[in-house]
C-alpha cells in the first residue's frame, strides 16, 4: 500500500521532544533499557495469549535482538512478540504519548518538579529521540490477516504511517543515531549498557554472535577433535535465583549468584530470600557481607529491579538506612517510578516494603541466634556494627534486636544485653541503684585502666566500632537504671560510686602542699588537680577526661550534631593518689626541684598511659627517665 496517512500529533502544543531530552531522562543511555524492556513485554504478551488459547500460531523461540550498523549509523531492536497494526501504532505510539502533550507542556511551565508531571505520561518509547534524529518502526501484528506497517518520525510533531516490509510477527525499532550520540554505535558501549540493565531480563537478549567449540569427530590417533561454531551471543540469564523457590536452590546457588553480582567480593556470611505477594509484590535476595568499618565503601550495593529490569542502586527510600550495608537484589513491580524509572515517587507501598524488609532481616537474625548461638557469636564481629546501626536508627528493629544483640567483654565472652546486666549487677551497682557498664574503646591503649578495673573485680566491655558512641547513648536511653562509663574516665575505684571510701593518710596541710607541687609540675591550662584517697597499689597519678564531656566531643568528631562541645577546650582531671608511696617520698624531699621532677615524671607517666605524651614533652620524659635510672 502507498502512504496511508500523514498527520500532526497536535497543532496546539510546542514541540515536546526538547522537553523529553532535557528533563525526562538524566542519563541518555537508558534509551536502550526502555526499548529493550518494551520488546521483552511484547514477547511475554504473545506467550501469555498463547497460554490463554487466544493465539494458536507458531510461537517460535522467544527472542529480542539488538543490532548495530556503524556504516548506516543505526541501532535496531527487534522482537518476535505481539507486533502492531497501523491502528495500534496510532493508539499506542501517537495517542498515549501525545494525547496529553498540550496539558503536559502547560503544567510543565509552572512545575517545581518536572519528574512529578513526566511520570503521568507514557513517554518511555520516546527516549529513542534522545539519541536518534529519525526513528522508524517496522511491525507485523499477530492478528489474522494483519498487514505489515511502518511508522516514521523525525523528532518533530509530524509522523508518517505506510505499508511496512516486515514478513514475520513482531517489531523492529530502527534508530538513526544523531551526530551527538555516535558513541552508542560502539558494540562495546552497547554491550556494557545491555549488561547493566538487561543482565537478568526474562527473555533471551541476542547481541551479535560468539564462537564456541563443538565436537568434530576424532583425529588419526583417535583423539577427539573440535571445531569453531558461530552461535548467538545471549547476554542475559533469564531465570535469576530470586525468581525461583528457595526449596529449589542450594547454598552454592546463592554463593554463585553473589559472585555474579560482585565478582571481587568476599563470600557473604548468610542471606535472606524475599518473596511476598500481598499487600505488594516483592522478590529478591539480600546478603549479609562482612561489614567493614568504612560505611561509605559498603553502600549502594543493593540493586533495584522492576520485572527483572535493572532500575538503580540508589535504594535509600525503599531500604532503611542501616540496611544499606547489605548487598543483593530487590525486584518489585509495585515500586512507583516515574517514566524515567530513575526516581522513586512517594507512595504507601514504599513504606510497607521498607517495614517488611526490616522485619525479615530482624527475623532472620533472631532465627540464626536461636538455632545456632555459637555460630552467631562467631559471626558477631562481622555483623555487630550493622546490628548496632539498626538499633540506633530504627525503633522497630531495636525492639527485636535487643534479644539477640551481643555485648563482648575483654575476655572475648559474649552476652545478650540482659545476660550482661545480670552478670555484673552485684558488683557494678552504684549507691543510687544504677548498674554501671564499664567499657573500653581501645583495649590496647587502655590496658592499664582495664587491669585496674579487673583488680576491683569489674568486668570491661569492648566498644570500639564507629557506631558505638551512638549505641552507648541509645542503651542508656533504653535500659532502666543503667549507665555506661569508659574505663579511663576515672580511677578504677571511682568508676562506680559506692558508700565506702578509703581514708587519706595525708593531713589537710599535706594535701594542699602536694596539690601545689603537682600544679607547678604540670603548668598547663585545662588540667585540674585533685588529691584522692585510693588503694596504695593504684597508680600514683591518673589523667582522665570527664565521661560526659569526652563522649560529647567524640560524637562531635563523628558529626553527631554536638559541634558546640567539639569547639570547647579540652579539660582533664588529674587524680593524685594521696596514699601512694610516691606522694610520701615527695613530702619527705626538701629540694623543690627534686619534688617537681618526681611530680613531673608521675604526671608524664599518666599522660603516656593515655597516649597524650607527644613531641618535645615525650623527648624530655625519655631524657628524665634515663637520668633517674
From TrEMBL:
The keyword 4Fe-4S does not apply. Belongs to the heat shock protein 90 family. It holds the Pfam family HATPase_c_3. It comes from the Bacteria. ATP binds at residues 34, 38, 79, 84, 99-100, 171, 341. Keywords: ATP-binding, Chaperone, Cytoplasm, Nucleotide-binding, Stress response. It comes from Pedobacter quisquiliarum. SUPFAM superfamilies: ATPase domain of HSP90 chaperone/DNA topoisomerase II/histidine kinase, HSP90 C-terminal domain, Ribosomal protein S5 domain 2-like. One of its GO terms (molecular function) is ATP hydrolysis activity. This is Chaperone protein HtpG.
Amino acid at each position: 500500500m502507498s502512504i496511508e496517512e500523514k498527520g500532526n500529533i497536535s497543532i496546539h502544543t510546542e514541540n515536546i521532544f526538547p522537553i523529553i531530552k532535557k528533563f525526562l531522562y538524566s542519563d541518555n543511555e537508558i534509551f536502550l533499557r526502555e526499548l529493550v524492556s518494551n520488546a521483552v513485554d511484547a514477547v511475554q504478551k504473545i506467550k501469555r495469549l498463547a497460554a490463554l488459547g487466544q493465539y494458536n500460531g507458531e510461537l517460535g523461540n522467544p527472542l529480542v535482538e539488538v543490532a548495530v550498523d556503524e556504516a548506516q549509523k543505526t541501532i535496531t531492536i527487534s522482537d518476535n512478540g505481539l507486533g502492531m497494526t497501523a491502528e495500534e501504532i496510532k493508539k499506542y505510539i501517537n495517542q498515549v504519548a501525545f494525547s496529553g502533550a498540550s496539558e503536559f507542556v502547560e503544567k510543565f511551565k509552572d512545575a517545581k518538579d518536572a519528574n512529578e508531571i513526566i511520570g503521568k505520561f507514557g513517554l518511555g518509547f520516546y527516549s529513542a529521540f534522545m539519541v536518534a534524529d529519525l526513528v522508524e518502526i517496522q511491525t507485523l501484528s499477530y492478528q489474522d490477516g494483519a498487514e505489515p506497517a511502518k511508522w516514521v518520525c523525525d523528532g518533530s510533531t509530524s509522523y508518517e504511517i505506510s505499508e511496512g516490509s516486515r514478513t514475520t510477527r513482531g517489531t523492529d525499532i530502527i534508530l538513526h543515531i544523531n551526530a551527538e550520540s555516535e558513541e552508542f554505535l560502539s558494540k562495546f558501549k552497547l554491550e556494557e549498557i545491555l549488561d547493566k540493565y538487561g543482565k537478568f531480563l526474562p527473555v533471551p537478549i541476542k547481541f551479535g554472535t560468539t564462537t564456541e567449540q563443538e565436537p568434530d569427530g576424532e583425529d588419526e590417533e583417535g583423539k577427539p577433535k573440535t571445531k569453531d561454531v558461530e552461535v548467538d551471543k545471549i547476554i542475559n540469564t533469564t531465570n535469576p535465583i530470586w525468581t525461583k523457590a528457595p526449596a529449589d536452590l542450594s547454598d552454592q546457588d546463592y554463593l554463585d549468584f553473589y559472585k555474579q553480582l560482585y565478582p571481587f567480593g568476599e563470600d557473604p556470611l548468610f542471606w535472606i530470600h524475599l518473596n511476598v505477594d500481598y499487600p505488594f509484590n516483592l522478590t529478591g535476595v539480600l546478603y549479609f557481607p562482612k561489614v567493614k568499618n568504612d560505611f561509605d565503601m559498603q553502600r549502594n550495593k543493593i540493586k533495584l529491579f522492576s520485572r527483572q529490569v535493572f532500575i538503580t542502586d540508589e535504594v535509600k527510600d525503599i531500604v532503611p538506612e542501616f540496611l544499606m550495608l547489605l548487598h543483593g537484589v530487590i525486584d518489585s513491580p509495585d515500586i512507583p517510578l516515574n517514566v524515567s524509572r530513575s526516581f522513586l515517587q512517594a507512595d504507601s507501598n514504599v513504606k510497607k516494603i521498607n517495614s517488611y524488609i526490616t522485619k525479615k532481616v530482624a527475623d532472620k537474625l533472631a532465627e540464626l541466634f536461636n538455632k545456632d548461638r555459637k555460630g552467631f557469636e562467631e559471626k558477631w564481629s562481622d555483623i555487630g556494627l550493622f546490628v548496632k546501626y539498626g538499633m540506633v536508627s530504627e525503633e522497630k528493629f531495636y525492639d527485636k534486636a535487643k534479644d539477640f544483640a551481643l555485648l563482648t567483654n575483654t575476655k572475648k565472652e559474649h552476652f545478650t544485653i540482659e545476660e550482661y546486666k545480670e552478670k555484673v549487677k552485684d558488683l557494678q551497682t552504684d549507691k543510687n541503684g544504677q548498674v554501671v557498664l564499664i567499657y573500653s574503646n581501645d583495649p590496647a591503649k587502655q590496658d592499664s585502666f582495664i587491669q585496674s578495673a579487673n583488680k576491683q573485680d569489674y568486668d570491661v566491655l569492648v566498644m570500639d566500632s564507629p557506631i558505638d558512641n551512638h549505641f552507648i547513648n541509645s542503651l542508656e536511653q533504653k535500659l532502666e537504671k543503667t549507665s555506661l562509663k569508659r574505663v579511663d574516665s576515672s580511677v578504677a575505684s571511682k568508676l562506680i560510686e559506692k558508700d565506702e571510701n578509703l581514708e587519706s593518710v595525708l593531713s589537710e596541710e599535706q594535701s594542699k602542699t602536694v596539690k601545689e607541687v603537682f600544679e607547678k609540675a604540670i603548668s598547663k591550662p585545662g588540667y585540674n588537680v585533685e588529691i584522692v584517697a585510693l588503694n596504695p597499689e593504684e597508680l600514683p597519678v591518673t589523667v582522665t577526661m570527664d565521661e560526659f564531656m569526652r563522649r560529647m566531643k567524640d560524637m562531635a568528631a563523628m558529626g553527631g550534631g554536638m559541634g558546640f562541645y567539639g569547639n570547647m577546650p579540652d579539660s582533664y582531671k588529674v587524680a593524685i593518689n594521696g596514699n601512694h608511696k610516691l606522694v610520701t617520698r615527695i613530702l619527705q624531699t626538701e629540694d623543690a626541684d627534686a619534688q617537681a621532677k618526681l611530680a613531673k615524671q608521675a604526671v608524664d607517666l599518666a599522660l603516656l598511659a593515655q597516649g597524650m605524651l607527644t613531641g618535645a614533652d615525650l623527648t624530655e620524659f625519655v631524657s628524665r627517665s634515663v637520668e633517674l635510672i
